[in-house]
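Good morning C.,

I know you're traveling, so I'll keep this short. The sequence:
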Amino acid sequence: MLPIRNDVALGASAPKRLLSAAQFLGSISVATYQQDDLALAALFYPFEVGQLRWPEDGAVLFMGAREGLPLREHKRDGLVFEQSFKPSHDAVSAAGIAEAEPSDADYAMILMLPPRQKDYARAQYVRALQRLRPGGVLVLSQANADGAKSCQTDLQRLVGSLSALSKHKSRVMWTAAGPAFDAEQARLWLRADEPREIVDSRFRSRPGVFAWDRIDPASRLLAEHLPADLTGCAADLGAGYGYLTSELLSRCANVTAVDLYEADGRALALARENLAEAGASRELEFHWQDVGAGLEQRYDCIVCNPPFHAQQGQSRPDIGRQFLLSAANALLPGGRLWFVANRHLPYEECLSEGFGEVRQVVQSGAYKVIEALRDEPRSDNRGARSGTLEHLIKRRRR
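The C-alpha coordinates, ready to paste straight into the viewer:
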Protein backbone atom coordinates (compact mmCIF):
# COMPACT_ATOMS: atom_id res chain seq x y z
CA MET A 1 0.00 0.00 0.00
CA LEU A 2 1.28 3.47 -0.82
CA PRO A 3 0.62 5.97 2.00
CA ILE A 4 -0.56 9.41 0.89
CA ARG A 5 0.11 12.43 3.11
CA ASN A 6 -3.14 13.80 4.48
CA ASP A 7 -3.45 17.08 6.34
CA VAL A 8 -7.23 16.88 6.91
CA ALA A 9 -8.08 17.09 10.59
CA LEU A 10 -10.11 14.16 11.92
CA GLY A 11 -12.67 14.05 14.69
CA ALA A 12 -13.22 11.29 17.23
CA SER A 13 -15.73 9.29 15.26
CA ALA A 14 -15.81 10.63 11.71
CA PRO A 15 -13.49 12.34 9.28
CA LYS A 16 -13.81 16.02 8.67
CA ARG A 17 -16.10 16.79 5.75
CA LEU A 18 -14.22 17.76 2.64
CA LEU A 19 -15.11 20.65 0.39
CA SER A 20 -18.34 20.31 -1.54
CA ALA A 21 -18.13 19.76 -5.28
CA ALA A 22 -19.16 23.37 -5.84
CA GLN A 23 -16.45 24.64 -3.48
CA PHE A 24 -13.90 22.33 -5.05
CA LEU A 25 -14.59 23.75 -8.50
CA GLY A 26 -14.23 27.29 -7.17
CA SER A 27 -15.33 29.94 -9.59
CA ILE A 28 -16.49 27.60 -12.36
CA SER A 29 -20.16 28.46 -12.87
CA VAL A 30 -23.07 26.89 -14.68
CA ALA A 31 -22.85 29.75 -17.16
CA THR A 32 -19.25 28.76 -17.92
CA TYR A 33 -20.34 25.17 -18.57
CA GLN A 34 -23.04 26.30 -20.98
CA GLN A 35 -21.17 28.98 -22.90
CA ASP A 36 -20.13 26.57 -25.66
CA ASP A 37 -23.61 25.06 -26.16
CA LEU A 38 -23.76 26.16 -29.77
CA ALA A 39 -26.78 24.01 -30.63
CA LEU A 40 -28.82 25.70 -27.91
CA ALA A 41 -27.91 29.14 -29.26
CA ALA A 42 -28.75 28.11 -32.84
CA LEU A 43 -32.12 26.65 -31.81
CA PHE A 44 -33.59 30.12 -31.30
CA TYR A 45 -31.98 31.77 -34.33
CA PRO A 46 -35.05 31.37 -36.64
CA PHE A 47 -37.11 33.25 -34.06
CA GLU A 48 -34.53 36.02 -33.85
CA VAL A 49 -34.53 36.62 -37.62
CA GLY A 50 -38.30 36.33 -38.04
CA GLN A 51 -38.38 32.95 -39.81
CA LEU A 52 -40.44 31.46 -36.98
CA ARG A 53 -42.87 32.86 -34.44
CA TRP A 54 -43.80 31.59 -31.02
CA PRO A 55 -47.32 30.07 -31.07
CA GLU A 56 -50.05 32.47 -29.98
CA ASP A 57 -51.86 29.68 -28.17
CA GLY A 58 -51.03 26.15 -27.06
CA ALA A 59 -48.16 24.68 -25.08
CA VAL A 60 -44.58 24.37 -26.32
CA LEU A 61 -42.49 21.35 -25.32
CA PHE A 62 -38.69 21.43 -25.16
CA MET A 63 -37.35 17.86 -25.55
CA GLY A 64 -33.76 17.32 -24.42
CA ALA A 65 -33.79 20.76 -22.84
CA ARG A 66 -30.55 22.30 -21.62
CA GLU A 67 -30.16 25.45 -19.56
CA GLY A 68 -28.29 28.47 -20.82
CA LEU A 69 -28.58 32.14 -21.66
CA PRO A 70 -30.43 31.55 -24.97
CA LEU A 71 -33.15 29.62 -23.13
CA ARG A 72 -33.53 32.27 -20.46
CA GLU A 73 -33.79 35.00 -23.10
CA HIS A 74 -36.53 33.16 -25.02
CA LYS A 75 -38.51 31.70 -22.13
CA ARG A 76 -42.27 32.13 -22.67
CA ASP A 77 -45.47 31.22 -20.85
CA GLY A 78 -46.64 27.72 -21.77
CA LEU A 79 -43.11 26.34 -22.20
CA VAL A 80 -42.52 22.93 -20.57
CA PHE A 81 -39.60 20.54 -20.83
CA GLU A 82 -38.40 16.94 -20.80
CA GLN A 83 -34.88 15.89 -19.87
CA SER A 84 -33.71 12.46 -18.65
CA PHE A 85 -30.20 13.64 -17.68
CA LYS A 86 -30.45 14.77 -14.07
CA PRO A 87 -27.93 17.68 -14.00
CA SER A 88 -29.53 19.25 -17.08
CA HIS A 89 -33.00 18.53 -15.74
CA ASP A 90 -32.27 20.29 -12.46
CA ALA A 91 -30.67 23.29 -14.20
CA VAL A 92 -33.67 23.81 -16.49
CA SER A 93 -36.08 23.38 -13.60
CA ALA A 94 -34.11 25.93 -11.55
CA ALA A 95 -34.57 28.39 -14.44
CA GLY A 96 -38.31 28.33 -13.70
CA ILE A 97 -39.52 26.05 -16.50
CA ALA A 98 -42.10 23.40 -15.63
CA GLU A 99 -41.62 19.72 -16.38
CA ALA A 100 -43.99 18.20 -18.93
CA GLU A 101 -46.37 15.38 -18.10
CA PRO A 102 -45.19 12.19 -19.85
CA SER A 103 -48.59 11.56 -21.45
CA ASP A 104 -49.10 15.08 -22.76
CA ALA A 105 -49.66 15.56 -26.47
CA ASP A 106 -51.26 18.12 -28.79
CA TYR A 107 -48.40 20.60 -28.60
CA ALA A 108 -48.44 23.67 -30.82
CA MET A 109 -44.65 23.51 -31.12
CA ILE A 110 -41.85 21.21 -30.00
CA LEU A 111 -38.26 22.35 -29.63
CA MET A 112 -35.59 19.66 -29.55
CA LEU A 113 -31.90 19.21 -28.90
CA PRO A 114 -31.49 15.65 -30.22
CA PRO A 115 -29.34 13.06 -28.45
CA ARG A 116 -26.06 12.18 -30.08
CA GLN A 117 -26.80 8.46 -30.50
CA LYS A 118 -28.47 7.91 -33.89
CA ASP A 119 -31.12 5.28 -33.03
CA TYR A 120 -32.23 7.18 -29.96
CA ALA A 121 -32.34 10.46 -31.91
CA ARG A 122 -34.41 8.97 -34.73
CA ALA A 123 -36.95 7.62 -32.26
CA GLN A 124 -37.15 11.04 -30.62
CA TYR A 125 -37.99 12.66 -33.98
CA VAL A 126 -40.91 10.26 -34.31
CA ARG A 127 -42.12 10.81 -30.76
CA ALA A 128 -42.02 14.56 -31.26
CA LEU A 129 -44.08 14.43 -34.46
CA GLN A 130 -46.61 12.14 -32.80
CA ARG A 131 -47.15 14.67 -30.01
CA LEU A 132 -47.73 17.70 -32.24
CA ARG A 133 -51.21 18.96 -33.03
CA PRO A 134 -52.08 19.14 -36.76
CA GLY A 135 -50.02 21.95 -38.22
CA GLY A 136 -47.75 22.07 -35.18
CA VAL A 137 -44.08 22.79 -35.78
CA LEU A 138 -41.03 20.75 -34.79
CA VAL A 139 -37.82 22.80 -34.41
CA LEU A 140 -34.52 21.06 -33.70
CA SER A 141 -30.89 22.03 -33.61
CA GLN A 142 -27.72 20.00 -33.79
CA ALA A 143 -24.08 21.07 -33.69
CA ASN A 144 -22.19 20.34 -36.90
CA ALA A 145 -19.60 18.35 -34.95
CA ASP A 146 -22.35 16.14 -33.54
CA GLY A 147 -23.78 15.18 -36.95
CA ALA A 148 -26.08 18.01 -38.00
CA LYS A 149 -25.94 16.97 -41.66
CA SER A 150 -26.94 13.40 -40.82
CA CYS A 151 -29.70 14.71 -38.57
CA GLN A 152 -31.15 16.77 -41.43
CA THR A 153 -31.00 13.79 -43.80
CA ASP A 154 -32.84 11.57 -41.32
CA LEU A 155 -35.54 14.13 -40.66
CA GLN A 156 -36.10 14.60 -44.41
CA ARG A 157 -36.54 10.84 -44.79
CA LEU A 158 -39.30 11.00 -42.23
CA VAL A 159 -41.23 14.12 -43.22
CA GLY A 160 -40.16 14.99 -46.77
CA SER A 161 -39.53 18.72 -46.91
CA LEU A 162 -38.16 20.96 -44.17
CA SER A 163 -36.49 24.32 -43.68
CA ALA A 164 -32.99 24.82 -42.34
CA LEU A 165 -30.51 27.53 -41.37
CA SER A 166 -26.86 27.38 -40.32
CA LYS A 167 -25.64 29.39 -37.35
CA HIS A 168 -23.18 29.02 -34.45
CA LYS A 169 -21.46 26.03 -36.13
CA SER A 170 -24.80 24.25 -35.94
CA ARG A 171 -27.82 23.59 -38.12
CA VAL A 172 -31.37 24.40 -37.01
CA MET A 173 -34.24 22.68 -38.85
CA TRP A 174 -38.01 22.91 -38.68
CA THR A 175 -41.03 21.25 -40.23
CA ALA A 176 -44.78 21.16 -39.71
CA ALA A 177 -46.61 17.98 -38.77
CA GLY A 178 -48.66 16.78 -41.73
CA PRO A 179 -49.67 13.90 -44.01
CA ALA A 180 -46.15 13.46 -45.44
CA PHE A 181 -45.15 11.68 -42.21
CA ASP A 182 -43.74 8.25 -43.17
CA ALA A 183 -45.56 5.86 -40.81
CA GLU A 184 -43.56 2.77 -41.77
CA GLN A 185 -40.23 4.53 -41.29
CA ALA A 186 -41.50 5.83 -37.96
CA ARG A 187 -42.40 2.32 -36.83
CA LEU A 188 -38.94 1.00 -37.70
CA TRP A 189 -37.17 3.83 -35.90
CA LEU A 190 -39.24 3.42 -32.75
CA ARG A 191 -38.51 -0.30 -32.79
CA ALA A 192 -34.76 0.34 -33.12
CA ASP A 193 -34.81 2.28 -29.84
CA GLU A 194 -36.62 -0.37 -27.81
CA PRO A 195 -34.82 -2.16 -24.94
CA ARG A 196 -33.31 -5.47 -25.93
CA GLU A 197 -31.18 -8.24 -24.43
CA ILE A 198 -27.39 -7.92 -24.62
CA VAL A 199 -24.33 -9.89 -23.42
CA ASP A 200 -25.84 -13.36 -23.86
CA SER A 201 -29.13 -12.14 -22.38
CA ARG A 202 -27.54 -11.18 -19.04
CA PHE A 203 -28.79 -7.61 -19.29
CA ARG A 204 -31.32 -5.47 -21.05
CA SER A 205 -30.21 -2.20 -22.56
CA ARG A 206 -31.14 0.31 -25.24
CA PRO A 207 -29.51 2.89 -27.53
CA GLY A 208 -28.37 6.12 -25.92
CA VAL A 209 -27.25 4.54 -22.65
CA PHE A 210 -23.51 4.51 -21.93
CA ALA A 211 -21.89 1.44 -23.55
CA TRP A 212 -25.43 0.36 -24.35
CA ASP A 213 -24.70 -2.75 -26.44
CA ARG A 214 -21.71 -4.19 -24.56
CA ILE A 215 -19.87 -4.37 -21.27
CA ASP A 216 -17.62 -1.34 -21.03
CA PRO A 217 -14.00 -2.64 -20.94
CA ALA A 218 -13.00 -0.32 -18.08
CA SER A 219 -15.95 -1.50 -15.98
CA ARG A 220 -15.08 -5.10 -16.79
CA LEU A 221 -11.50 -4.59 -15.61
CA LEU A 222 -12.75 -3.11 -12.33
CA ALA A 223 -15.22 -5.95 -11.81
CA GLU A 224 -12.53 -8.58 -12.42
CA HIS A 225 -10.41 -7.12 -9.60
CA LEU A 226 -13.06 -6.40 -6.98
CA PRO A 227 -11.99 -8.14 -3.75
CA ALA A 228 -14.35 -10.66 -2.20
CA ASP A 229 -13.96 -9.10 1.26
CA LEU A 230 -15.94 -5.92 0.55
CA THR A 231 -18.70 -5.79 3.17
CA GLY A 232 -21.67 -3.83 4.44
CA CYS A 233 -23.51 -1.04 2.67
CA ALA A 234 -22.17 -0.18 -0.77
CA ALA A 235 -22.79 2.46 -3.41
CA ASP A 236 -22.33 2.28 -7.18
CA LEU A 237 -21.72 5.78 -8.55
CA GLY A 238 -22.70 6.18 -12.19
CA ALA A 239 -24.34 2.76 -12.19
CA GLY A 240 -25.52 2.73 -15.81
CA TYR A 241 -27.70 -0.27 -16.62
CA GLY A 242 -26.47 -2.13 -13.53
CA TYR A 243 -23.41 -4.11 -14.61
CA LEU A 244 -21.04 -3.18 -11.76
CA THR A 245 -23.67 -3.72 -9.08
CA SER A 246 -24.46 -7.13 -10.55
CA GLU A 247 -20.77 -8.07 -10.38
CA LEU A 248 -20.36 -6.62 -6.89
CA LEU A 249 -23.24 -8.70 -5.57
CA SER A 250 -22.01 -11.89 -7.21
CA ARG A 251 -18.41 -11.50 -6.01
CA CYS A 252 -18.94 -10.03 -2.52
CA ALA A 253 -21.28 -12.16 -0.41
CA ASN A 254 -21.02 -9.86 2.61
CA VAL A 255 -22.25 -6.76 0.82
CA THR A 256 -25.70 -6.41 2.38
CA ALA A 257 -27.14 -3.48 0.44
CA VAL A 258 -26.31 -1.31 -2.58
CA ASP A 259 -27.45 2.17 -3.51
CA LEU A 260 -27.21 2.81 -7.24
CA TYR A 261 -26.70 6.42 -8.37
CA GLU A 262 -27.20 7.33 -12.00
CA ALA A 263 -27.85 10.66 -13.73
CA ASP A 264 -29.38 9.10 -16.87
CA GLY A 265 -32.99 8.23 -16.04
CA ARG A 266 -33.25 5.81 -18.97
CA ALA A 267 -30.21 3.85 -17.74
CA LEU A 268 -31.55 3.77 -14.18
CA ALA A 269 -34.85 2.28 -15.37
CA LEU A 270 -32.87 -0.50 -17.05
CA ALA A 271 -30.83 -1.09 -13.89
CA ARG A 272 -34.06 -1.63 -11.93
CA GLU A 273 -35.12 -4.22 -14.46
CA ASN A 274 -31.74 -5.94 -14.67
CA LEU A 275 -31.36 -6.22 -10.89
CA ALA A 276 -34.93 -7.15 -10.00
CA GLU A 277 -33.94 -10.72 -9.09
CA ALA A 278 -30.91 -9.61 -7.05
CA GLY A 279 -33.13 -7.20 -5.14
CA ALA A 280 -35.10 -10.10 -3.73
CA SER A 281 -32.16 -11.25 -1.61
CA ARG A 282 -30.28 -8.02 -0.87
CA GLU A 283 -31.53 -4.50 -0.47
CA LEU A 284 -31.16 -2.22 -3.46
CA GLU A 285 -32.12 1.41 -3.85
CA PHE A 286 -32.06 3.41 -7.06
CA HIS A 287 -31.30 7.14 -7.10
CA TRP A 288 -31.77 9.40 -10.13
CA GLN A 289 -29.14 11.88 -9.01
CA ASP A 290 -26.19 14.03 -9.97
CA VAL A 291 -23.36 12.41 -8.02
CA GLY A 292 -21.29 15.57 -8.26
CA ALA A 293 -23.87 17.38 -6.10
CA GLY A 294 -22.95 15.10 -3.17
CA LEU A 295 -24.51 12.12 -1.39
CA GLU A 296 -26.50 12.14 1.84
CA GLN A 297 -25.91 8.52 2.90
CA ARG A 298 -22.71 6.95 4.25
CA TYR A 299 -21.16 3.72 2.98
CA ASP A 300 -18.66 1.01 3.83
CA CYS A 301 -17.52 0.73 0.23
CA ILE A 302 -18.06 2.46 -3.08
CA VAL A 303 -17.40 1.32 -6.64
CA CYS A 304 -17.43 3.52 -9.69
CA ASN A 305 -16.27 4.13 -13.23
CA PRO A 306 -16.37 7.94 -13.11
CA PRO A 307 -17.25 9.76 -16.34
CA PHE A 308 -14.88 12.32 -17.78
CA HIS A 309 -17.00 13.66 -20.64
CA ALA A 310 -19.92 16.08 -20.58
CA GLN A 311 -23.31 15.19 -22.03
CA GLN A 312 -22.36 16.74 -25.37
CA GLY A 313 -19.08 14.81 -25.50
CA GLN A 314 -16.58 17.47 -24.37
CA SER A 315 -13.66 16.24 -22.30
CA ARG A 316 -14.40 17.12 -18.66
CA PRO A 317 -12.05 15.35 -16.22
CA ASP A 318 -13.37 17.66 -13.49
CA ILE A 319 -16.59 15.60 -13.53
CA GLY A 320 -14.55 12.55 -12.54
CA ARG A 321 -12.92 14.54 -9.75
CA GLN A 322 -16.36 15.52 -8.49
CA PHE A 323 -17.31 11.83 -8.36
CA LEU A 324 -14.23 11.02 -6.30
CA LEU A 325 -14.84 13.94 -3.97
CA SER A 326 -18.43 12.82 -3.43
CA ALA A 327 -17.16 9.29 -2.75
CA ALA A 328 -14.67 10.56 -0.16
CA ASN A 329 -17.39 12.50 1.62
CA ALA A 330 -19.77 9.53 1.57
CA LEU A 331 -17.44 6.83 2.89
CA LEU A 332 -17.40 5.88 6.55
CA PRO A 333 -14.00 5.98 8.30
CA GLY A 334 -12.00 3.04 7.02
CA GLY A 335 -14.33 2.74 4.01
CA ARG A 336 -12.97 1.57 0.68
CA LEU A 337 -13.26 3.15 -2.74
CA TRP A 338 -12.63 1.01 -5.79
CA PHE A 339 -12.67 2.75 -9.14
CA VAL A 340 -11.35 2.52 -12.67
CA ALA A 341 -10.07 5.34 -14.86
CA ASN A 342 -8.16 6.00 -18.03
CA ARG A 343 -4.41 5.83 -17.44
CA HIS A 344 -3.80 9.43 -18.49
CA LEU A 345 -6.18 10.95 -15.92
CA PRO A 346 -4.23 12.06 -12.79
CA TYR A 347 -6.98 11.34 -10.28
CA GLU A 348 -4.45 10.21 -7.68
CA GLU A 349 -3.66 13.88 -7.03
CA CYS A 350 -7.16 14.69 -5.78
CA LEU A 351 -7.23 11.56 -3.59
CA SER A 352 -4.61 13.00 -1.23
CA GLU A 353 -7.46 14.81 0.55
CA GLY A 354 -9.59 12.44 2.60
CA PHE A 355 -7.87 9.14 1.88
CA GLY A 356 -5.10 7.76 4.04
CA GLU A 357 -3.84 5.14 1.58
CA VAL A 358 -4.09 4.90 -2.18
CA ARG A 359 -2.75 2.11 -4.36
CA GLN A 360 -2.90 1.18 -8.00
CA VAL A 361 -4.25 -2.36 -8.13
CA VAL A 362 -3.68 -3.05 -11.81
CA GLN A 363 -2.92 -1.29 -15.07
CA SER A 364 -4.09 -2.89 -18.29
CA GLY A 365 -4.20 -1.31 -21.71
CA ALA A 366 -5.72 2.16 -21.44
CA TYR A 367 -7.09 1.69 -17.91
CA LYS A 368 -6.03 1.51 -14.29
CA VAL A 369 -7.87 0.24 -11.21
CA ILE A 370 -7.29 2.10 -7.96
CA GLU A 371 -8.22 1.38 -4.35
CA ALA A 372 -8.38 4.23 -1.83
CA LEU A 373 -8.99 3.82 1.92
CA ARG A 374 -10.86 6.49 3.82
CA ASP A 375 -9.02 7.80 6.87
CA GLU A 376 -9.75 6.14 10.19
CA PRO A 377 -10.56 8.45 13.12
CA ARG A 378 -7.61 9.21 15.39
CA SER A 379 -9.22 7.97 18.60
CA ASP A 380 -11.50 5.08 19.55
CA ASN A 381 -12.97 3.92 16.24
CA ARG A 382 -15.70 1.68 17.59
CA GLY A 383 -18.23 4.40 16.79
CA ALA A 384 -17.01 4.67 13.22
CA ARG A 385 -18.47 1.38 12.09
CA SER A 386 -21.69 2.05 13.97
CA GLY A 387 -22.59 4.32 11.06
CA THR A 388 -23.21 1.16 9.10
CA LEU A 389 -25.82 -0.09 11.56
CA GLU A 390 -27.47 3.31 11.77
CA HIS A 391 -27.58 3.46 7.97
CA LEU A 392 -29.21 0.03 7.75
CA ILE A 393 -31.83 1.01 10.33
CA LYS A 394 -32.64 4.19 8.39
CA ARG A 395 -32.96 2.19 5.17
CA ARG A 396 -35.45 -0.22 6.70
CA ARG A 397 -37.56 2.63 8.04
CA ARG A 398 -37.89 4.29 4.64
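Safe travels,
E.
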